[in-house]
Amino acid sequence: VGSGSAASLSRQVQGTGGSSAVSKCSAAARGYIQDRFLRLLAGRRRRRAPLIHRGYYIRARAVDHCVQDFLLKTQSLPRTQILSLGAGFDSLYFRLKDMGLLHHTVVYEVDFPNVACQKATLIKGMKELSALVGDTGGEGLGAITFSGEDYKLLGVDLSELSELERTLEEAGLNNAIPTLFIAEVVLTYMENTRSDALIQWAAEHFPQACFLVYEQVHPEDPFGHVMQQHFSQLNTALHSLAQYPDCEAQQRRFLGKGWTECSVMDMNEFFTCCIPEDEQQRVQTLEPFDEYEEWHLKCSHYFVLAASKGMEPSWTPLLPSVTVPCRAGPVGMTGSVPAAACARLSGVPGLRRYGHHSALIKPNVILTTGGFGEEDGQHCRMRNFHVLSKHAGCWEAVCVTQNIPDKRWGERLYHTVSCLSDTLALVVGGRTSPSSAGLGMLWLKFPQTCNASGPGDVAVEFVSLEPAAEEAALRWRHSTTEMTFKGEKYLFVYGGRSALEPVLGDWYFLHPPELSHTEIAVEGPVPESRHSHSACSWEGGVLIAGGLGAAEQPLGSVFLLRELEHGFQWQTIETHPPLVPRYSHTAHVHEGKLLLVGGVWFHASAVPGVTVIDLMTGLCLDYVINVEHLEWPLMLHNHSSVFLPDEKELLVIGGGGNCFSFGTHLNPEPVSLSLSSILISH
């Protein structure tokens, strides 16, 4: 690498440090983290989205958890030291000093020379910071840009190991005392040979040492592709990922380079296992939030690692504090399902959306409504409907623009659409923003001849509900399923969430066409509250599968609401092997088999494909989706799907979401999954 390009590369990497300081500062301002020093060091202020706040909260929490554990375990020792690699504008030293945790610990921070100089200037110019370091002249020499009694700031390129070693020695680093190394999203920006050398050097030169790493993992799944692309576009490629793609590889890396103990957790596991329940609840209620999928995907793509050697007692900060099944093992795949893009539909931008709903209004004709997506080159809540129909084996689509008063349609997300005849459908619930109340119900009326070549007009009428049924509509991420009781047709509205309740477990029986709320007795074990589950009609009853439960934990239960003589009964369907807990999937029933499509689960080793549950035997088989013929990452959450039983074809429309700070990914065109090989009729 020539010096010019090396300099520009270091500038790009420094940029990531600056933007992460701004994000941490925004998270602190909203009460996620307690840190009064961030605003002094971050420079510019900018309010970030709730998803970003959560992401930086978990990062700060993981690092703090391990650092404080190190200080606690070594508090009886006369002297210890912390070496923060690529510290940027982090406030760690000031926070620990302010909390009185540095009685016998010196903190060394290393970053690029110009970053270290900027930070030194900031500290000297700000009374609140310089007062904490204590006035020891503070002027550094050469690479030492700031030198306090228990705080040294060094300007060195981490990839120049001999220079790093020389400067640390000059600054007074003592190889003989217990040392904690911190690398918070740092090593991955270095060439692997150089980061490996640094890890090995630390193990070889420090007899009693601990090493803390927080960075990215799982480059190969759809979210991982979007994440990698983002960092490549910033010209800050993530080098570690190719060689160390998962937590196990990172663990082997440290154990093979001189560290004797090493534990690692992804952030879903850390949040569930190492953060007390009351703190989880506090964070979950700090601001209106409805991006669960992206939060859990972000967490499955970052890990925290704690390695140590020579420590007595041994350093194990990543032991679960709660007895929950933390580590999700690998999911065994039975086979694969081929995916093919509907290339003819790639020119229809309105099909790039998520949080929408698609319904089969008659054979081979699909109506797609609502959601968030792409319209006129802009990302927005979708007002237009789309009609898809199949002609001569090919799907065609047309946009149906409506002159709808905004209040009525409300550009909604996470609603349901139930077709009651080939000219009539009912829209239930949905939301605009997560802090708004639900949006009520609408009738959609379309002509009998409606298809993609001549959709005609879709008339929208507001439904005025009796007071007893109103609550049924003020929700989103719920399900609405057609069912029968005593030969009459009903709609069963179940679960979801509302602006006031993060998760609902109630249900309503609505009798069309007047949609009156009917009291029908239900017995049996009541399913735990959930949203983002799936619901299908089966034998007059309703099958509920998965969902996200009260503590934002995915559920793996399957329930059947079955008709009895005087009402209904909840029955648990036992699956074996047990269904991997998931949510944000879609579902269909075909010849006694429940098909679950996509979704989000905590098993980072694979993404959910198609799961087939035999409703007679409970046998549960997972199939991976073969995406080799797709030229883009297929994200199967917040999608919609329609099953065509004759062709055993599943059409997946839309899907994707806001991928943390890496940009929005919308599946560019609908995808057809051929299920004929896995649905062999017996």
Automatic annotation (TrEMBL):
Region feature Disordered, mapped onto this chain: 1-21
Catalytically driven reaction(s): 7-[(3S)-3-amino-3-carboxypropyl]wyosine(37) in tRNA(Phe) + S-adenosyl-L-methionine = 7-[(3S)-(3-amino-3-methoxycarbonyl)propyl]wyosine(37) in tRNA(Phe) + S-adenosyl-L-homocysteine; 7-[(3S)-(3-amino-3-methoxycarbonyl)propyl]wyosine(37) in tRNA(Phe) + S-adenosyl-L-methionine + CO2 = wybutosine(37) in tRNA(Phe) + S-adenosyl-L-homocysteine + 2 H(+)
The protein's enzyme class: transferase
Ribosomal protein listed as a keyword: no
Coiled-coil parts of chain: none
Protein's GO biological process: tRNA methylation; wybutosine biosynthetic process
EC numbers, comma separated: 2.1.1.290, 2.3.1.231
Top-level taxon of the source organism: Eukaryota
Gene3D superfamilies: Kelch-type beta propeller (2.120.10.80), Vaccinia Virus protein VP39 (3.40.50.150)
InterPro entries, sorted: Gal_Oxase/kelch_b-propeller, Kelch-typ_b-propeller, Ppm1/Ppm2/Tcmp, SAM-dependent_MTases_sf
Pathway: tRNA modification; wybutosine-tRNA(Phe) biosynthesis
Alphabetical list of Pfam families matching this protein: Kelch_KLHDC2_KLHL20_DRC7, LCM
GO molecular function: tRNA methyltransferase activity
UniProt keyword terms in alphabetical order: Methyltransferase, S-adenosyl-L-methionine, Transferase, tRNA processing
Reported function: Probable S-adenosyl-L-methionine-dependent methyltransferase that acts as a component of the wybutosine biosynthesis pathway. Wybutosine is a hyper modified guanosine with a tricyclic base found at the 3'-position adjacent to the anticodon of eukaryotic phenylalanine tRNA. May methylate the carboxyl group of leucine residues to form alpha-leucine ester residues.
Subunit structure: Interacts with RNF144B/IBRDC2.
Family: Belongs to the methyltransferase superfamily. LCMT family.
Name of the protein in its database record: tRNA wybutosine-synthesizing protein 4
Gene that produces this protein: Lcmt2
